[in-house]
């Protein structure tokens, strides 16, 4: 009997170790770790009990029984922990775990001490020579009851936990928990029988291995009967896709919730069957290959779209047994596609076409209607950034929406509307539908902004007729905006047509820009000087002006090309060229002994942004070794208004270096007196045009007199330019002006003529 017992226990230990290795290779979950610990302790428990029935000696038997009993404690606790994790319950908190640890430690200490004084139990050699000798427990003391109480207490707790899980678990999982409970009860029952009947061997140790094997099977291999089928049914039933299954006779044997919604049926599936038969037609279902199609239906009052996919079903003998089709809900996908399509074709703020969709639509329209005359109308809001800055972005957006709504109200028939960018709009309209009067009336209604309509937005419109359908629409839009450029700043006109004359002007501007670099290289730009004199007519210096001696075109005045260069960004290169010509003349005058005379040069507003003015000018005067006082700088008020602090600091630096700074066109800006107060100046220039613009001469005289007195108080010289007649000279002399420039004294002249006249 002893040999059989040892053989069985050895086999169990080997199997337990094998399963430990298997589990570690396949899973690393917490439950898997619990099962590994259970197997490890179960193998140890069996091993220690095996050592008790080997007749080695009393001490080894006592130690082996102590370890056996102590491992039994651990086995129960680990079993409890396994149930706790397997069922995902939390019955023991950290404090309870600490108490359990203390109780196990006490039991372990008692078992260890028992080896020396047998305070728990004693062992006695039993058996006979034929069956073999072994040690068994005898003389159990009252302290041994502590160990048994601990064991049975945990047995009861484990039983209650399993009973609770059986009570609350889904029916399909109950058998799983019952299997664990039966193994556990059988293990405890055999232990109780061993204790009560004082059997030769503790057969419950065999159930430690059996229970561990059962737990391994239940944890990793057992799947409750019907679980897969029920799970699949529940999963399919709650699919967002519809699933319909048909048998070989065309009967609907299954349809999930979404499929029933698609076909508007509850229990009656005849509608689904009719749809299937209609789709199948005369084809045999087993001959229909896998295929898909699109469909739509109404669900809960909303239009829904679906993609259907058909497949046949064959058994293991390749015999046709039915088919199924899946209805994939395409509604959200279609919705997103529509939204993306809308965003790619429409402006999100106004709802009008965007640039690309406008070009495409108009091109299709004019090709489809070759006999209809269309025009492209483009609109641009002047200084729209000011509206955003002053009134806020929301008000700016409201202006854009108002302009879009105005175009909608004016649109008729096949008119196409678009917002091309920011504040730029485009319309393709039939020529016969253009109504300028109504258009201007509508513009006036939406152009007043702010509280009490305090701000009037200026909206310019350019119109370009479409006469060649092969020309891209983008070109017609560019031409319409070119027409707008031709009237910007003109407050009397808000609509301009692109015509041959404007086209000619635009081409000429392009030629000017393309000729600029070669004109500089060929010295086609020549310096002209207009003298500045005192009240006796004595020449003190001159203003540097420029003339372009352009081949074929002859001499061109600044008003013919300066505006072009300003808009094309070439003005700064022009200014640098003129500054250097002026410096060369001052150097030559210095060599001639005429260094008392100065030359004033113009500094354009764009120079403040595109040039390092200070470095450029100081480098020039140092290169040509001239007095910076003789190169005077004429700036306009508008040059300084933007980023005033930075530009005023630059002017101070220039004056500190030795340049004299003159404000040109004083009085044409909106805040000249403020500039006079804030800016450190050496002189101001007042144009006689100021008097000619004002219809009240007396009022003009009072303003001029006030300015002259203020300049005198600030020690700022005043130069009157544009003096053409003697009475104008006398008028300004009476007001106290002492410096003059104008045709009355001399027109701008070439340098050599200037020197012959005044040197």
TrEMBL record:
PROSITE patterns to which the protein is assigned, alphabetical: EAL (PS50883), GGDEF (PS50887)
SUPFAM superfamilies: EAL domain-like, Nucleotide cyclase
InterPro entries: Biofilm_reg_signaling, EAL_dom, EAL_sf, GGDEF_dom, Nucleotide_cyclase, Rev_trsase/Diguanyl_cyclase
Domain EAL: 509-759
Source species, domain of life: Bacteria
Pfam families reported in the protein's UniProt record: EAL (PF00563), GGDEF (PF00990)
Domain annotation GGDEF: ranges: 372-500
Keywords, comma-separated and alphabetical: Membrane, Transmembrane, Transmembrane helix
Keyword Transmembrane belongs to the record: yes
Membrane-crossing segments per the record: 6-23, 35-53, 65-84, 96-116, 149-167, 179-197
PANTHER family the record matches: BIOFILM ARCHITECTURE MAINTENANCE PROTEIN MBAA, DIGUANYLATE CYCLASE DGCP
Protein name in the entry: EAL domain-containing protein
């Amino acid at each position: 009997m002893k040999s059989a017992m040892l053989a069985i226990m050895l086999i169990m230990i080997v199997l337990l170790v094998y399963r430990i290795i298997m589990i570690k290779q396949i899973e690393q979950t917490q439950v898997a770790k619990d099962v590994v610990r259970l197997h490890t302790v179960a193998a140890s428990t069996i091993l220690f009990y095996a050592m008790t029935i080997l007749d080695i000696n009393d001490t080894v038997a006592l130690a082996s029984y102590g370890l056996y009993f102590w491992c039994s404690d651990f086995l129960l606790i680990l079993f409890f922990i396994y149930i706790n994790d397997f069922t995902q319950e939390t019955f023991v908190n950290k404090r309870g775990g600490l108490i359990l640890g203390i109780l196990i430690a006490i039991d372990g200490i008692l078992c260890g001490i028992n080896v020396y004084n047998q305070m728990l139990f004693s062992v006695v050699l039993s058996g006979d020579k034929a069956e073999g000798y072994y040690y068994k427990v005898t003389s159990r003391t009252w302290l041994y009851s502590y160990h048994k109480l601990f064991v049975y207490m945990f047995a009861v707790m484990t039983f209650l936990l399993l009973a609770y899980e059986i009570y609350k678990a889904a029916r399909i999982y109950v058998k799983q928990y019952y299997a664990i409970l039966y193994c556990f009860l059988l293990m405890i029952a055999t232990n109780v029988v061993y204790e009560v009947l004082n059997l030769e061997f503790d057969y419950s140790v065999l159930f430690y291995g059996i229970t561990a094997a059962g737990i391994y099977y239940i944890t990793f291999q057992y799947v409750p009967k019907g679980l897969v089928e029920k799970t699949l049914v529940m999963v399919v039933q709650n699919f967002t896709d519809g699933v319909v299954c048909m048998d070989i006779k065309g009967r609907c044997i299954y349809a999930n919730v979404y499929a029933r919604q698609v076909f508007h049926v509850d229990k009656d599936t005849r509608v689904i069957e009719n749809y299937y038969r209609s789709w199948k037609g005369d084809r045999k279902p087993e001959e229909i290959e896998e295929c898909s199609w699109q469909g739509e239906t109404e669900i809960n009052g909303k239009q829904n779209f679906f993609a259907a996919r058909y497949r046949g079903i064959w058994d293991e003998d390749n015999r046709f047994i039915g088919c199924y089709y899946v209805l994939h809900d395409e509604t959200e996908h279609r919705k997103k596609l529509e939204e993306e399509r809308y965003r790619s074709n429409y402006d999100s703020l106004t709802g009008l076409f965007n640039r690309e969709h406008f070009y495409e639509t108009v091109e299709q329209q004019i090709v489809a209607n070759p006999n209809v005359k269309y025009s492209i109308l483009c609109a641009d809001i002047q200084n729209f950034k000011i509206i955003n800055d002053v009134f806020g972005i929301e008000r700016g957006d409201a202006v854009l929406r108002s302009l879009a709504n105005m175009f909608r109200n004016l649109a008729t028939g096949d008119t196409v509307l678009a917002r091309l960018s920011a504040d730029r709009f485009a319309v393709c309209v039939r020529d016969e539908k253009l109504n300028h009067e109504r258009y201007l009336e509508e513009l006036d209604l939406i152009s007043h902004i702010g509280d009490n309509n305090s701000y009037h937005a200026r909206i310019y419109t350019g119109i370009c007729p479409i006469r060649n359908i092969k020309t891209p629409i983008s070109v017609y839009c560019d031409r319409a905006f070119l027409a707008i450029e031709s009237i910007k700043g003109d407050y009397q006109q808000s609509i301009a047509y692109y015509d041959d004359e404007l086209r000619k002007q635009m081409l000429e501007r392009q030629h000017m820009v393309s000729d600029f670099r070669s004109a500089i290289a060929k010295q086609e730009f020549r310096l002209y000087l207009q003298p500045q004199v005192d009240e006796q007519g004595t020449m003190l210096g001159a203003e540097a002006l420029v003339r372009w001696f352009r081949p074929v075109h002859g001499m061109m005045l600044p008003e013919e090309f300066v505006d072009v260069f300003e808009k094309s960004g070439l003005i700064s290169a022009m200014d640098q060229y003129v500054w250097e010509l002026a410096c060369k003349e001052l150097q030559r005058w210095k060599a001639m002994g005429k260094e008392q005379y100065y030359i004033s040069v113009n500094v354009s507003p764009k120079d403040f942004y595109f040039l390092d003015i200070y470095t450029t000018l100081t480098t020039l005067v140092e290169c040509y070794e001239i007095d910076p006082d003789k190169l005077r700088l004429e700036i306009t008020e508008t040059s300084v208004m933007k980023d005033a602090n930075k530009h005023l600091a630059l002017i101070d630096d220039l004056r500190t270096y030795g340049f004299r700074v003159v404000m040109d066109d004083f009085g044409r800006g909106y805040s000249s007196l403020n500039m006079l107060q804030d800016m450190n100046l050496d002189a101001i220039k007042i144009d006689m045009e100021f008097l000619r613009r004002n219809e009240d001469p007396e009022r003009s005289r009072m303003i001029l007199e006030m300015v002259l007195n203020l300049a005198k108080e600030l020690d700022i010289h005043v130069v009157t330019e544009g003096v053409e007649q003697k009475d104008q000279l006398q008028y300004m002399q009476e007001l106290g002006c002492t410096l003059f420039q104008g045709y009355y004294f001399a027109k701008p002249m070439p340098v050599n003529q200037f020197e012959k006249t005044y040197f």
